[in-house]
Amino acid sequence: MKEVLLIVIAYLIGSIPTAVWTSRAFFGIDIREYGSGNAGATNTFRVLGSRWGTFVMVIDVLKGVLATSLYIFLPYYLQSSSEWDRTNLMVGLGLAAVLGHIFPIWADFRGGKGVATLFGMILAIQPVVAVCCVGVFLLVLYLTRFVSLSSMLASVAFAVFILVIFNEKEPLYRAFAIAVALLVVLTHQKNISRLLKGNESKVPIFKYRDRKRERRRSEKADH
Question: How far are the Cα atoms of 193, 202, 210 from residue 222, in angstroms, in the given order?
Answer without folding.
Answer: 36, 27, 18
